[in-house]
Amino acid sequence: MPVPYYDPLVSPTPASQPFADSYWASTQALPTLLPALSGTHQTDVAIIGGGYTGLLTAYYLASEFNIDCQVLEANQVGFGASARNAGFVLKGSGRLGYSAMEKRWDLDTAKGIYQEFSQAVSRVEQLITQHQIDCEPQEKGYLKVAHNPKALSQLQYAAAYIQHNMANGTDFSAEFIEADTFRQQYLNHHQAYGALRLNDGFGLHPLKLLLGYKKAVERQGVKIHEQSCVIDWIEESGKHRLITEKGQLVANKVIMAGNAYSPKQLNPRIDDKFLPILSNIIVTEPLTPEEIQQAGLHSNQVTMDTRILKYYFRLLPDNRLLFGGRGAVWGKDASNPIYGKRLKLAMDKCFPYLSRKKVAFNWTGWIAASMDDMPHVYSKDGVGYSLGYCGAGVSFSAQAAFRLAQSIAGESLPNLPLYHSPLPPMPFTKARRLGQWGYYHYGWLKDKFG
C-alpha cells in the first residue's frame, strides 16, 4: 500500500516518507543514512531541519562563531524542498517587487532588501567556490518573460526602476529585451511579449549543492541526525527538550529551519502562520543539438514568466528542458498525473516544437508563503526561524542562515523588516486550502484574459 503524500497541513510528520523521484535524485547517488539521535544529548543550539537553511545555519554557527550545535532531520537530508526545487539561484525571495517594497515601507528599506538579496546570490557563489561543490552552475542571467502587453509595460517600468533606484545608475543590473530580440537571441518563446533580464541569477543542480553543504557542515564537526523527527518540544527553565522517537536533545536555543516541510504542529511561533503550496516540475527526455535549434532554446539562463500562476524553465546541462509551475491544491492529489499533463501542455504552447518530446521526470514539492508575501528571518528569546521563501530559497536561504547565526550569536542584524518582524498570523487557517483553490481559479482567469 503506497505511503500517503506528505501534506504539512494534514500529516503529523514527514518521517518515513520516500525520497522524491526527481531528475536530481536520478543523477546523484545519495550518501548512506546518518544515525538517528539516540539517548539524551545536550547542545547549545538545536537546529530542526537539514535543508539549505538548517545546514548553513549550523555551518555559520560553527565556523564563524564557534558555537556548539546539532541538526535534527526528520527524514533524510534532501527529502524536502532543497532537493526538489528547480535549482534557480535568484536575487529575490517572497513575492514583493522593489517598487511595492518602497510603497509599503520606503526607498531605503527597498534598497536594503535589494542588497540582502544581492549578497545572497554572492554568498552561494562563494560557498560553491570555497568548498569546491560540483553542482553544475550554468551561465549567469535571469529572464523574466512578459506574457501579455500589460505585463510588458510593467517589466519596462521594473527594469528602469531597478537600474535607477537599486543600482544607483552605475552598475548594470537590469535590462529590457524587445520580443524579437528575445526570440532570436534567447528563447523562441511563442507567448513572449518581451523580457526583463537581471544579470546575476543562474541555474545549478540543487541536490549536489545541498550535499556539498552537508560535507562542509560535517567538516566543522557538527553532528547531523537523520531520521530524527521532533515529536515533542518541551520548554522548561530556559531550556528546550526536543524529543524524538529514540532520544532527546536538550538545547539552550532552537532554530526552526523546515520552511514548508515543518510538521503540522511544531511550535506556536510558526504553527498556522504559513501556507504550503505544491510546485510541480517536469523534465523532458534529452534533446539533440538539432532539436534545440528547432525549438529555439538559444540560452540556458533561468527563466520565469509574469503570470500570477507562474511557469519557470531552463535548459539543463544534458540538454533536457526543465519546466515547472503550480501543482495540486491538496497534498492527497499531488501524484495525480493531470498536473504533469497540464505542465506539458503549457510547455508545448511556449515551445511548440517540443510537443513531440516525452516527459522523462515528473515530481512535486512544497514551498511556503507568508501572509504578507515576504520571508521572515526572526529570532527572539532563544528561538529563531526562517520561513516564507515562496519558492526562491536556493539563494536567500544562504543569507538567512548567516543572519540567523549572527542573531543567535548576539550580533545585531540590518534594520530591515525581513529580520525584525515575526510571521504574521494567517486568518481563517482552517480554510486556507479553499482560499488557495479560489485564488488559483482567479489567477487562471486573470492570466488568460487579464
Strand and helix layout:
Layout: H1 23-27, E1 39-48, H2 52-65, E2 69-72, E3 88-89, H3 98-104, H4 107-130, E4 142-145, H5 149-166, E5 174-178, H6 179-185, E6 194-198, E7 202-203, H7 206-219, E8 223-225, E9 232-236, E10 239-243, E11 247-256, E12 275-284, H8 289-295, E13 302-305, E14 312-315, E15 321-326, H9 337-350, E16 359-369, E17 376-380, E18 383-387, H10 393-408, H11 417-420, H12 432-449
Parallel strand pairs: 1-2, 1-11, 2-8, 4-13, 11-18
Antiparallel strand pairs: 3-7, 4-6, 5-6, 9-10, 10-11, 12-15, 12-16, 13-14, 14-15, 17-18
What order do the SSEs take from the amino end to the carboxyl end, as H and E?
A: HEHEEHHEHEHEEHEEEEEHEEEHEEEHHH
Let me know the CATH homologous superfamily of the largest domain: FAD/NAD(P)-binding domain
Q: Please indicate the percent range of residues in DSSP E strands (runs of 2 or more).
A: 15-25%
Uncertain runs are none
**CATH-derived topology of the largest domain:** FAD/NAD(P)-binding domain
How does the helix and strand content classify structurally?
A: alpha/beta
CATH class of the largest domain: Alpha Beta
Number of domains: 3
User: What is the terminal separation in angstroms?
Assistant: 44 Å
Total count of helical runs of at least 4 residues: 12
The CATH architecture of the largest domain comes to: 3-Layer(bba) Sandwich
Largest sheet: 8 strands, mixed
Q: Give the proportion of residues in helices.
A: 25-40%
Radius of gyration: 21 Å
Describe the global form: globular
